[in-house]
């Protein structure tokens, strides 16, 4: 891994929190992700399942974590199963975790090779009443591929039909949404790498640069700062491309007078950052671009203030919609009749601002969090309003990452990343 080793006290705490939420006499099993094939002998780069990483820090394929807090013997209460390493694997693939190294990474003392899993599970199941299976219940999830976790669940249900079944996901949704201080530090580190990439761009962008050249500058800066790269597929959208919300082709030339909408950010140690900025290809915003830009910035700043403990997700978005409506009226994009005659299910402002304002962020860019429950201190959210005007040939989105505080305004993890018009223009023209 490129990142510095994380102190295993984080993963010890995370397992303790999960174990206290389990039913009596229950086992929980977590599987790593597969390495997914492309074709021939090609594969996608390995990306660890965030749940097993959250609970163990193990960041390699063919790994299983088993938790059994009520096991009769202490050495059965936390167990890691790892792919057995050998000299041949070390030569062809590089070093894998040894049992000793796994203890350093995870804080788990009982480590077996993967081939022992079924034998040991059979013994432990004779002591247990319930097993926690780890299904993906994220509100944005749409998965067609059968995962390693899916195969395990199918096999387990066929092999142990008499045991009760419980779900890990509701527990993890709550635990992962509230960050430990170590996690906030890792997200901050990812944000700091993103800042380096953005500042590099401000000195690089000029008319006729291509979107893919901008992408190349970013990946260079991210990787040289120990990131694996982008936290998500980068959006580098010049001109009217910005009005395609998930534009990822990044293959067009940025013309003089264009705005360039950047939704790009680095990961670090599997933790995401998530930034949007909109900059002028020529180094100066037009008066109209500046008008719209500052309207989006005001919405972002007002929305941020509302991210407090006790805030309800649905009501938050209603209030942000009111602020955006006021700004769109001021810009002349809406008139009073548009608002008076709007459909409550699709308010007038949605013509120019059609996506949500905030989502949980952490190990996943769209991280775990139960949207029907009130916000809590140490949750991390994006704040990302936008205004999209195809008729005028540009769209603007601004996005920061903030931590909900026990009292007062959220802490902005991106407070050092330039966002004011004057600062961006100053850096681009220095």
Protein described:
With 430 residues, the protein is an alpha+beta fold. The protein contains 13 helices and 16 strands. It has helices at 9-20, 50-56, 87-93, 99-106, 117-125, 148-159, 169-177, 181-202, 211-223, 287-305, 313-330, 336-340, 421-428, and strands at residues 26-31, 64-67, 78-82, 110-113, 130-133, 164-167, 235-238, 259-263, 267-268, 271-272, 276-280, 380-383, 386-389, 394-397, 400-403, 411-412. Strand 15 (400-403) and strand 16 (411-412) form a beta hairpin.
- Sheet bearing the most strands, described? 6 strands, mixed
Kindly report the spatial arrangement of strands forming the biggest sheet: 4-3-2-1-5-6
Residues in helices, as a percent range: 25-40%
From the spread of the alpha carbons, the general shape counts as globular
Architecture blueprint of SSEs:
Elements: H1 9-20, E1 26-31, H2 50-56, E2 64-67, E3 78-82, H3 87-93, H4 99-106, E4 110-113, H5 117-125, E5 130-133, H6 148-159, E6 164-167, H7 169-177, H8 181-202, H9 211-223, E7 235-238, E8 259-263, E9 267-268, E10 271-272, E11 276-280, H10 287-305, H11 313-330, H12 336-340, E12 380-383, E13 386-389, E14 394-397, E15 400-403, E16 411-412, H13 421-428
Parallel strand pairs: 1-5, 3-4, 5-6
Antiparallel strand pairs: 1-2, 2-3, 7-8, 8-11, 9-10, 12-15, 13-14, 15-16
């Amino acid at each position: 891994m490129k990142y510095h080793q994380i102190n295993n006290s984080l993963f010890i705490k995370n397992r303790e929190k999960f174990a206290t939420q389990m039913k009596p006499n229950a086992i929980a099993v977590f599987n790593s992700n597969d390495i997914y094939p492309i074709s021939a002998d090609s594969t996608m780069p390995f990306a660890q399942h965030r749940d097993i990483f959250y609970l163990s820090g193990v960041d390699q394929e063919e790994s299983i974590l088993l938790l059994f807090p009520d096991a009769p013997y202490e050495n059965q209460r936390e167990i890691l199963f790892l792919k057995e390493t050998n000299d041949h694997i070390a030569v062809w693939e590089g070093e894998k975790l040894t049992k000793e190294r796994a203890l350093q990474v995870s804080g788990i003392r009982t480590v077996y090779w993967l081939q022992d899993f079924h034998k040991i599970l059979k013994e432990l199941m004779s002591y247990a009443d319930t097993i926690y299976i780890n299904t993906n219940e994220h509100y944005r999830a749409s998965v067609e591929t059968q995962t390693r976790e899916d195969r395990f669940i199918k096999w387990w249900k066929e092999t142990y039909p008499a045991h009760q079944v419980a779900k890990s996901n509701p527990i993890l949704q709550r635990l992962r949404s509230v960050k430990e201080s170590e996690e906030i530090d890792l997200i901050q580190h990812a944000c700091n790498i993103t800042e380096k990439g953005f500042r590099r761009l401000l000195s690089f962008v000029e008319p006729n640069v291509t979107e893919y050249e901008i992408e190349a500058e970013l990946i260079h800066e991210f990787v040289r700062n120990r990131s694996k790269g982008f936290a998500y597929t980068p959006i580098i959208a010049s001109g009217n491309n910005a009005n395609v919300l998930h534009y990822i082709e990044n293959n067009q030339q940025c013309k003089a007078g264009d705005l360039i909408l950047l939704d790009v950010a680095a990961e670090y140690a599997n933790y995401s950052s998530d930034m949007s900025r909109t900059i002028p290809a020529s180094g100066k915003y037009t008066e109209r671009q500046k008008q719209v830009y500052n309207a989006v910035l005001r919405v972002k700043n007002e929305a941020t203030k509302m991210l407090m403990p006790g805030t309800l997700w649905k009501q938050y978005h209603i209030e942000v919609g009111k602020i955006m409506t006021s700004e769109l009226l001021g810009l002349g994009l809406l008139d009073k009749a548009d608002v008076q005659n709007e459909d409550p299910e699709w308010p007038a402002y949605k013509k120019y601002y059609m996506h949500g304002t905030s989502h949980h962020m952490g190990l996943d860019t769209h991280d775990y969090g139960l949207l029907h429950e009130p916000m809590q201190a140490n949750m991390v959210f994006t704040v990302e309003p936008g205004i999209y005007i195809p008729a005028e040939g540009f769209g603007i989105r601004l996005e920061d990452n903030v931590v909900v505080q026990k009292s007062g305004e959220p802490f902005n993890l991106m407070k050092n990343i330039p966002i004011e018009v004057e600062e961006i223009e100053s850096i681009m023209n220095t």
